[in-house]
Give the backbone structure.
Amino acid sequence: MEDLNQLNEAIINGDAKTARGMVERAVAEGADPVQLVHEHMVPAMNIVGQRFDCNEYFVPELLLSARAMKAALEILRPLLAKCGAEPAGRVVIGTIKGDLHDIGKNLVAAMLEGGGFEVIDLGVNVPPEKFIATAKEKNANIIAMSALLTTTMPAMKTTIDALKEAGLREHVKVLIGGAPITRKYADEIGADGYSENAPGAVSLAKTATGK
Ligand code: B12
């Protein structure tokens, strides 16, 4: 059996090849994909964040760790999706305008797929009008927005306001998340739900759609 602490180390050190290889072998040996993500990969990214905070890591190191995380997630994404059952609703997800962080958003998208939702992922730097137009076009039940920068958070409120103006607010639930987001902020801007992690996002989405 793999020593999974090495998976944490590979992500912290930005070693994409090792991270991907470890995940492939762990999965082949029967490891639980959800456990790999939440007990090893997310904590590893948290350590990367702490090192960035105390000037031990700089943007190049962050990029390498993010690349390692993505490489490992690529293997797990289809497996996370398979954990689910019946389609539970349609979610339009994206990282808010001005924000390029997508690791958490990708994790939430994968877990929602795993929870049985059809997920339309608009990627990063998504303007309010694109969220609205896609939700309308795809007849979505939920818009899920991610923000990692305090400077981009206000675009979440702009999107909710635009949803109201488009006459869609009654039909589309809005879930938000990302490191700087709090429940208080979600309440302030009139979002329907906030969660600090990806499994929580699935529970919120299920509650929002009455599943
Ligand atoms: C990796 C990283 C980067 C990478 C991003 C790569 C990528 N593809 O995502 C790169 C190097 C590109 C980057 C760039 C920048 N970054 Co950066 N980055 C980070 C870092 C270290 C980790 C973020 C991460 O991936 N965490 C792991 C994931 C799994 O966690 P998460 O995103 O929080 O997601 C979880 C939950 O929040 C939740 N969730 C997330 N989204 C959603 C959505 C919904 C609907 C729900 C319900 C839940 C939910 O579930 C997720 C899974 O559990 C953070 C530090 C930190 N501790 O957060 C800084 C951080 C976010 N970055 C920061 C900064 C300042 C920047 C830059 C401005 C740096 C610069 N000088 O250029 C740029 C901005 C670029 C831009 N316009 O977006 C600051 C933000 C400070 C602030 N107050 O706004 C942070 C906090 C670092 C710091 N302490 O200063 N960054």
Summary: The domain at 89-209 is CATH 3.40.50.280 (Rossmann fold).
